[in-house]
Amino acid sequence: MNVRAPQPNNVVSQSLAQIGNCGLFLLTLLAAIPRSFRYVRETIRQLWFVGAMSLTIIMVCGLFVGMVLMLQLYHVLSIFGGTSASGMVVALSVYRELGPVVTALLFAGRAGTAVTAEIGLMRATDQIDAMEMMAVDPIAYVATPRFLAGLIAMPLLCCVFCAMAIFGGHLVGVTWLGVDNGTFWSNMTAQVDVHTDIVNGVLLKSLAFGAVVSLIAVFQGFTTPPTSEGVAYATTRTVVASSIAILALDFVLTAFLM
Amino acid sequence: MSQPRSSYAVGTGLFIVLGFAALAYLATQTSSVANVHQGDSYVVDAQFTNIGQLKERAPVKIAGVRVGQVQSITLRADHDVADVKLSIDKGYDHIPLDSVATIFTSGLLGDQYVGIEYGSSKQAVAAGGTLARTKSTQPLEEMLGKFFGAGGVVDNVGGSYAVKAGFSNVGTLSAGAPVKMAGVVIGSVQSVHADPVKLNAQVVLSIDKRYNAIPDDSSAAVFTSGLIGSQYVAIQPGGSPEMLKDGDEMILTQSAMQLEDLIGKFLVNGSPSDKKDAGNGSK
Amino acid sequence: MTQPVRATPDDATLVRVRGLTTVLGGKTIFDALDLDIPRGKITSIMGPSGTGKTTLLKHITGQMRADAGSIHVDGQDVAGLSREQLYKLREGVGYLFQNSALLTDFDVFENVAFPLRQHTKLPEVLIRDLVLMKLQAVGLRGAARLMPNELSGGMARRVALARAIVFDPQLILYDEPFVGLDPVALNQVLKLILTLNQTLGITSVLVSHELAAVQQIADHVILLAKGKVVAQGDPKTIADDGSPWTRQFFGGEADGPIPFRYPAGDYAAELGFAGAAK
Ligand SMILES: Nc1ncnc2c1ncn2[C@@H]1O[C@H](COP(=O)(O)OP(=O)(O)O)[C@@H](O)[C@H]1O
Ligand SMILES: [Mg+2]
């Protein structure tokens, strides 16, 4: 009978241990940044996989979020005769909350799981050991580039998401429901502030989410048992942990930034 | 996967460019940066006695089109008027000298902006010039007063006289509610209390002195503005040569419709066309 | 290009293991193991599976740390090296993984070119020529643009071999290089290992179970069992040295000092035949 070494026996202490290990892993990652400068090519390649390859889903989802938001707002606001504010409300809610949060959730599902599964399989097939043997530091070559790529890709994806949402809102509001084009834009431009909404909302939040999702994805990939079962669990954990972290962090950031 | 290495770089480059383009678009086209004048502009002065909530960088509009923004707001040392500098795009350099600058509010709760209505002068206001004709903002209280005919405002203007009316049911009518004739506010409800003898509600209406030619057989009804709005007293003028005087009592009254009654009527009559009748019947 | 594993001709031993003791998961893998790997020779390490042959190779390259004892590679104590020094050492060591471990992101060519790209700034033409030469040596030049998942196990092994030798290392560790090779490919790989050793003087450590193959090329055989060296000597004669270890291992007998079974409790008892127990 194979008796396993005693694990931390409850969910709380297990999660705490995970968070602690994850924090230590972050330090390792950051310490490897100078060494990973020579793998800039790899960072660019990862940017392609986590960023450019996520564009389609981000654009489609952004479009629909903008469209449905406008549809809902139009019907609520028309009760008060406030449909002229609909463009503004779409912009503000997308910039401050929906853009960063939905992009990060999609990013965790699309890119985070891929990174976890990829690294897990690399470990299962000895590729990480092979790199070690070829005197290539796997943290600097595999982990840090993926982390940095996620960090860079998230704000860019979020900007694309927001732009598509505005486009979708415009499509539904102005083209279909007949909100005045000038009112749509002028109310939006009157209320959206570059600093609070775009820098703090879109950029800062998505940067933070990008860091958290990439960290969790890379960490799970590197620490999961290198078996097919382990990789399967790790991808699930990436999505679950990322989603919780995104929403919790969103609350904290909103409280601090707004 | 086996694409040559350079295609990643190109694709990634495209992705980064697209991301930054989106960012530039958000920052410049959908935010207040878009309101920062694109080209050259010139500055025009305007003095207002009350700027309300007007803020710097608030839009300046002509016929609803944005032509510039408020550059600065200062209080003039020697006067109790606000000196507002309007920065207007060079493209709109033919604003007549006698144009009127007004502080408007976008909607009831929206932000305020400066609207310029063209005058007829042949002479255009020059850079550094002044728009002499201005209309200041309306304080919210005043606007609300106009809206709801708050008793105080009317009372203070020309004095009022009191008229009593008995209702079998006043619904949620309370002191301060408007009294309207032909939809126009002419006074307010002074007090509402129950009469211990007649067992009905005694309402004292305070009516503006200007409206002293209301026939004494006019009827008073408690209406509701809209389905969920507040209640008010509507006066339906009668035909008697005698006019209502201070202390008179109105005989013809119609009580508030109970929601339950309304629903009851609706259910009994059933069809939408009957609903209309029910509405008329309550008048 | 650096050659960190310095050739000091007066020292005949490249890898010196002394008192190596390692416990993994409660199981003693090495028990005060001593062994020497001679420079410039082909040394074959044999032993029942699960003895720790792969683990030993990982100790030599510093991927795993021992609980006690020391490993010196070319005079340097592996456990005492910093990461940079260790990486310098590894640049001079080729390692053929038991399951190839090709990088699945890259095609065959890029896999072989990987160490060159990482550690040199050679011009692309030169990298191309070097890679194609190594691929030609393992007979897979035509497969240069295939992806790892398009290769058979044997082909992947040969690509991994090409990658291990692309840097012309001083020491190559082969972990079961013959598994999954057909007789023709096996013969080629055998010849390749021999050629590398004879023409370039590359020290080779060969972990393998194929006695016939080992006998063709190895200069020295070390038989590991139960965490110790139980026999060593010339491959031609070791099978007949009369020790019970070699007789059982090379004769393939189930009974002998080498346990066929992983340590376990009493069989009958575990099946529940309480009465049958002892
Ligand atoms: N990371 C590890 N944790 C626990 N046990 C391990 C670990 N790696 C290897 N082992 C155990 O060490 C023993 C030797 O493994 P290995 O060196 O792979 O054997 P082989 O001689 O067949 O190559 C095996 O019994 C294995 O179960
Ligand atoms: Mg092995």
> What is the global morphology of chain A?
elongated
Q: Give the oligomeric state of the chains in this entry, treating copies of one chain as homo and distinct chains as hetero.
A: heterotrimer
What general form of chain B does the structure show?
Answer: elongated
Uncertain stretches of 5 or more adjacent residues of chain B:
149-157, 271-283
Strand content of chain B: 25-35%
Radius of gyration of chain A: 21 Å
Mean residue pLDDT of chain B = 76
Task: Describe the overall structure.
The complex is a heterotrimer of chains A (258), B (283) and C (278). The N terminus of chain A is likely disordered. Chain A is an all-alpha fold and 258 residues long. Helix content of chain A is 84%, strand content 0%. In chain B, 22% of the residues lie in helices and 34% in strands. The C terminus of chain B is likely disordered. By secondary structure, chain C is of the alpha/beta class. In chain C, the strands form 2 sheets. A 6-stranded mixed beta sheet of chain C has the order 6-7-8-3-9-10, sandwiched between helices. In chain C, helix 6 links the parallel strand 7 and strand 8. The chains are: A mainly alpha (258), B alpha/beta (283), C alpha/beta (278). Chains A and B meet through helix 3, helix 7, helix 8 and helix 9 of A and helix 1 of B. The site of adenosine-5'-diphosphate has 10 residues of chain C, from helix 1. The site of magnesium ion (MG) has 4 residues of chain C, from helix 1.
Helices and strands in order:
The complex is a heterotrimer of chains A (258), B (283) and C (278).
Chain A: H1 11-31, H2 33-36, H3 40-51, H4 55-79, H5 86-124, H6 127-133, H7 138-176, H8 181-191, H9 194-223, H10 228-257
Helix pairs in contact in A: 3-7, 4-5, 4-7, 5-7, 5-8, 5-9, 5-10, 7-9, 9-10
Chain B: H1 5-29, E1 41-48, E2 59-62, E3 65-75, E4 82-89, E5 100-105, E6 112-117, E7 130-131, E8 133-135, H2 140-148, H3 151-158, E9 160-167, E10 178-181, E11 184-194, E12 201-208, E13 219-224, E14 231-236, E15 249-250, E16 253-254, H4 259-269, H5 272-281
Parallel strand pairs in B: 1-7, 2-6, 5-8, 9-15, 10-14, 13-16
Antiparallel strand pairs in B: 1-4, 2-3, 3-4, 5-6, 9-12, 10-11, 11-12, 13-14
Helix pairs in contact in B: 4-5
Chain C: E1 13-24, E2 27-38, E3 42-46, H1 53-60, E4 68-73, E5 76-77, H2 83-91, E6 93-96, H3 108-119, H4 124-137, H5 153-165, E7 171-175, H6 183-200, E8 203-207, H7 211-217, E9 220-225, E10 228-233, H8 235-238, H9 244-251, H10 267-271
Parallel strand pairs in C: 3-8, 3-9, 6-7, 7-8
Antiparallel strand pairs in C: 1-2, 1-4, 4-5, 9-10
Helix pairs in contact in C: 3-4, 3-5, 4-5
The complex binds adenosine-5'-diphosphate (ADP) and magnesium ion.
